[in-house]
Amino acid sequence: MDVAVLDDAEAVGAHVAALVADAVARHPDLVLGVATGGTPLPAYRALARGSGDLSGVRLVALDEYVGLPPGHPASYAAYVEREVATPLGVPSAHVVVPQGSGAALERRIAALGGVDLQLLGIGRNGHLAFNEPGSQLDSRTRVVALSETTRRDNAAPFGVDPVPTHAVTQGIGTILEARHLVLLATGAAKAAAVAAALTGPVTPDCPASVVQTHRRLTVVLDAAAASGLDGWRLVGGPAAERVHHPQL
Ligand code: F6R
């Protein structure tokens, strides 16, 4: 596990963008798993400001709401197009977003040869993609019911419209097959979930805890999101500290 703790969300974005740009420089046809939500936005914006050619990258989304009309601005298909593909110059034909039961997504990922680098956020309740607490650790892409916490946390883009009750999400087992996981978290509201995910037991109660079992995990946090990591040793300067778990 490689953990970087940076000053703020912008620094997290710049760090993740550099990591992605480096991977694309080595593999112009990188299969990049993209998280949606607020956390990765600074990373996508920093990537878009960079000079690298990202037109060969393939984008695979983690999840999508069920029941929204096509093109709904709060859909993750619209998010990936608006916040990632268009600013990065990735053609729409290179974008895959789960739909329906999700079985087709598993086939698309297999046809792409698997996900090379998977960006992940974390829910306040420890969810990973839309795998809510209680999800099977070997689950595959499927339709799930969203928890009330998640529906409340994700309400803003829906305005007065109701937040969907269900979503189709890559399973925990699916996510773990990506070759490199990059978990991002910013803000104090994520501190408890981050601490549980990285230092607690690997358990369905905190789906994000499975990242501990992956052989290539990078964690990029701001100081507020890292504030619950008691007992971790900070090494390095204040602006770009590296954290190493005493047991690793
Ligand atoms: C989004 C996703 C979710 C988010 C999580 C955090 O594709 O899979 O797990 O990563 O809900 O969302 P934000 O970043 O908005 O706090």
Fold blueprint:
Layout: E1 2-6, H1 9-26, E2 31-34, H2 41-49, E3 58-61, E4 63-65, H3 76-88, E5 95-96, H4 103-111, E6 117-120, E7 142-145, H5 148-153, E8 166-169, H6 172-176, E9 180-185, H7 191-199, E10 217-222, E11 233-235, E12 240-244
Bound molecules: fructose -6-phosphate.
Residues 35-39, 62-63, 121-123, 127, 129-130 line the site of fructose -6-phosphate.
CATH C-level category: Alpha Beta
Global outline? globular
Report strand order across the widest sheet: 5-3-2-6-9-10-1-12-11
How many individual domains? 1
Main sheet overview? 9 strands, mixed
Number of strands: 12
What is the N-to-C succession of helices and strands? EHEHEEHEHEEHEHEHEEE
* Ions, cofactors and other bound molecules: fructose -6-phosphate
Radius of gyration, in Å, reads: 17 Å
Number of helices: 7
**Helix/sheet category:** alpha/beta
- At the fold tier of CATH, the topology name is Rossmann fold
**Residue-averaged pLDDT:** 92
Portion of residues in helices?
Answer: 25-40%
State the separation between the terminal residues, measured CA to CA: 8 Å
Task: Enumerate the spans where pLDDT stays under 50 for 5 or more consecutive residues.
Answer: 234-248
| Percentage beta strand | 15-25%
Structural write-up:
This protein has 248 residues and is α/β, with parallel strands linked by helices. The chain has one domain (2-244): Rossmann fold (3-Layer(aba) Sandwich), CATH 3.40.50.1360. 28% of the residues lie in helices and 20% in strands. It has seven helices and twelve strands. The protein has helices at 9-26, 41-49, 76-88, 103-111, 148-153, 172-176, 191-199, and strands spanning 2-6, 31-34, 58-61, 63-65, 95-96, 117-120, 142-145, 166-169, 180-185, 217-222, 233-235, 240-244. The longest helix has 18 residues, at 9-26. The radius of gyration is 17 Å and the shape is globular. The structure holds fructose -6-phosphate. Residues 35-39, 62-63, 121-123, 127, 129-130 line the site of fructose -6-phosphate.
